[in-house]
Amino acid sequence: MNGLLVRQLLKLACAKLAILVTTFVIKLYRVRSFIRGIQKQGLPMPPHHWLLGHIPLSASIIGNLPPYAHGVYVGDQIRQRYPHLDSAFYLDNWPLAAPILIVLKPDMMYQLTQANQIPKDKSIRAFLKPLTGESDLATLEGDTWKYWRGMFNPGFSAGHVSSLVPGMIEEIKIFKYLLRKNAESGKMMFLEDASPTSQSISLAELQCMNINLLECINIFRPFVHAYNSYRMNHYLSRELDKRYRSIEGIEIQKKDKSIVDLALKAYLAENPSATGIDKSFQNFAMVQIKLFIFAGHDTTSAGAIFTYHLLSQHENVLAEVRVEHTEIMVSVSSPTE
């Protein structure tokens, strides 16, 4: 009986393996055939291997780049290696990545991103779905995107961003104090505990809600994603309701341009007789707030973290940076800084 069961399981496993291999081969054939077809039509691309596509080319380029270099450098290195590919070209790295069109000229980028409404790639939705679902500004399309983008435009004006500088300075002072304190003690420290990660999130919170938003929340633990999503949504909905009650019946001032105030201003303009925040509007607003906080963290703090990491690994460069800072900062520093 046991032998029969084992044989049945082996047959099932072999059948599944055969299906997977067959599916892979069919997809590989379709992708390579498509790329070879557009190559025959004269569309630009580097030399293409009938089986491996552009994987060998990309691998050779990545091997010559510094560790952790951004993938965007691959396209530029291909342009340098093949100067005739100076406008746009196709790159086929399937199954490691979907085939893409790399655009290099600004006027072509304008055509794709502004002059024409090209559908956004589904990989963006897949990437942001754990955090925002599928209704954030980065993934919305058409009129829905225009509505929400127009709502938040004032919050990103040059004048308003400049008005946030004093708050940024205060956050950087805190970070500087923590760095100096740890430097004096000589103890090893985790940069994440009191680093640009927390500081840039605080700055994003300042822009989004004028409150300290994520004191007790860590959204970067996938294994507790469902729990964290509940906590974030619960906290944000509570803060939205609190802010709504505080301004109910009071006109929001023009200077109030936090993400929350801008969203509530638009909501009150459309629903002047509302006695509370509509659930669907609240959900949309919370999604945008989470996106803005994530975007602020993923750019500023990630860049700062890697900068400190690379400086720690290249002492000669670190020494040059310290000399430059000493020469420049000493002449402009004051006892209050």
If you compute it from the alpha carbons, what radius of gyration comes out, rounded to the nearest whole angstrom? 26 Å
Give the proportion of residues in helices.
55-70%
Q: If classified by CATH, what would the architecture of the largest domain be? A: Orthogonal Bundle
Low-pLDDT stretches: 196-216
Average of pLDDT: 80
Largest sheet: 2 strands, antiparallel
What is the total number of structural domains? 2
Q: What distance lies between the first and last C-alpha atoms, to the nearest angstrom?
A: 80 Å
GO molecular function: heme binding; iron ion binding; monooxygenase activity; oxidoreductase activity, acting on paired donors, with incorporation or reduction of molecular oxygen
Pfam families: p450
Organism: Botryotinia fuckeliana (strain T4)
Family: Belongs to the cytochrome P450 family.
Characteristics:
single chain, 337 residues, mainly alpha, Cytochrome p450, 2 domains, two-stranded antiparallel sheet, 13 helices, extended
Describe the structure.
InterPro entries: Cyt_P450 (IPR001128), Cyt_P450_sf (IPR036396), Cytochrome_P450_Monoox (IPR050196). Belongs to the cytochrome P450 family. GO terms for molecular function: heme binding; iron ion binding; monooxygenase activity; oxidoreductase activity, acting on paired donors, with incorporation or reduction of molecular oxygen. It holds the Pfam family p450. Helices cover 65% and strands 2% of the residues. The protein has a two-stranded antiparallel sheet with strand order 1-2. It folds into two domains: 2-118, no CATH class; 149-332, Orthogonal Bundle (Cytochrome p450), CATH 1.10.630.10. Mean pLDDT is 80; it is low at 196-216. The relative contact order is 0.07. It has 337 residues and is an all-alpha fold.
